Amino acid sequence: MNPKKALFLSTVLTTFVIAILFGVYSKITKTSTQVASLTAPVALADNTAASVAEQPTSVPSAAAPTIVTPDLAASLAARAINRQDVYSVETSSYLGVDAFKVVFSSGDVVYIGLDQQVFATEKLQPVIVTVANVAPAPAPKKHRAAAQAPTTGSSGGGEIEHETE
Fold first, then answer.
1. Total count of domains within the chain
2. Is the C-alpha dihedral spanning 142, 143, 148, 150 positive or negative?
3. Which residues touch 5 (CB under 8 Å, ≥6 apart)?
4. Does residue 39 belong to any structural domain of this protein?
5. Of 30, 39, 87, 138, which is the most buried if we count CB atoms within 10 A?
6. Is residue 76 part of a domain?
């Protein structure tokens, strides 16, 4: 390979790798700043609640609603039925209300509402399938010409000739 071509190829590949690494780095830092921005209002709400508690008023302060994540729904469901074998968590609807459906490997199902309430617990019933023994299908009938096998007799005509190349 020509040294100039090798240098050009090396430069192009290095630039490509640097661009990919920059994209990954910017995605990671963007995600961490989003997490920080989500937690900052909660801390601000705690500080304002403390300052409101110092000044007695007749208006009750509203608590910040907790966002229910699939992990939180799984831990709430595990505590509700005292099991730790969570199999899957999926969004679902229970009686027309949005909820998380937490399925355990034991077959238990727990519905957790978006307000952290346990809506219902169920036990999946196993489905038993039985297959009846079926008689084997009759063998297909052979063609008449194939059914007549050559017989060996005194005439010596029992051998079949094959063409070989």
1. 2
2. negative
3. none
4. yes
5. 87
6. yes
pTM over 0.85: no
List CB contacts of 158: < 8 A, sequence separation 6 or more.
150, 151, 152
The residue segments making up the domain with residue 34 are 1-56
Q: Which residue has the tokens 């978006």?
A: 114
- Report pLDDT digits (tens) over 78-134: 888 888 888 888 988 888 888 989 998 888 899 988 888 888 888 877 788 888 777
Q: Which residue has the tokens 């194939």?
A: 146
Q: Over the stretch 71-89, which tens digit does the pLDDT of each residue have?
A: 888 888 888 888 888 888 8
**78 and 48, same domain (yes or no):** no
C-alpha to C-alpha distances, 63 to 28, 45, 46, 117, nearest whole angstrom: 31, 8, 9, 17
